[in-house]
């Protein structure tokens, strides 16, 4: 009897040992599996974070598109066009422009020269640029220039011009913009005024030219057809000796361009 019990005890003890060993094996297997899975989870999290960074990078702000309209052209066009959408009043498509009294350089050459340098400077500063003309021998009306800027979906437009006067003593720069009462483009008046203030201040600070201030004009075709904030920068008087000569020097033009570009930067701050 005792022997039988002893045999049963040994069998039971053996079974218990086997079960215990199996339990240990299962437990170890579970730990190993968990350990193997952890790096995968870490990589997955890292991958998600990395992907998020890529998505955020793609959502960077789009570059601002700056429209530049170099005033006038080699030969003016006296044919008439409406000064604004639905307007009965008409003006010449493109006026002849002024000529430097001392340098003999025509306004259309000066505006294109500044426009090309301004384009390069703005591109260097991270903007995109669209120009209404890139050469002097063209025939593009003021309405067509505005429409080109509109079609390009520019953010703002800077129209470059130079002034003239019957008095050679008159000098300095001024800027024109549409009023809130403008029947053609009142919606862009506020932003145009802000752009005007920014550009004329920076321009005169950089060039040292007399600041003749902001002037409201609602009779300008190239402005009235615009759908984006727009200004006309009268860069200086071509009938004034100091202004005329200054605007034809490399140093002067470099400062003019820097001043305008600074004004654009400040407008977006």
TrEMBL record:
> Which positions fall inside the MurNAc-LAA domain?
146-265
Q: Which InterPro entries would you find in this protein's record?
A: MurNAc-LAA_cat (IPR002508), N-acetylmuramoyl_amidase_3 (IPR050695)
**GO BP, sorted A to Z:** peptidoglycan catabolic process
Keywords from the UniProt entry: Hydrolase, Signal
Name a GO CC annotation attached to this entry. outer membrane-bounded periplasmic space
Q: Where is the signal peptide?
A: 1-35
Question: CDD domains in the record, alphabetically?
Answer: MurNAc-LAA
GO MF annotations for this entry?
A: N-acetylmuramoyl-L-alanine amidase activity
Decide whether keyword Nucleus is in the record.
no
SUPFAM superfamilies the UniProt entry points to: Zn-dependent exopeptidases
Highest taxon of the lineage: Bacteria
Under what name is this protein listed? Answer: N-acetylmuramoyl-L-alanine amidase
What's the source species' lineage? Bacteria, Bacillati, Bacillota, Clostridia, Lachnospirales
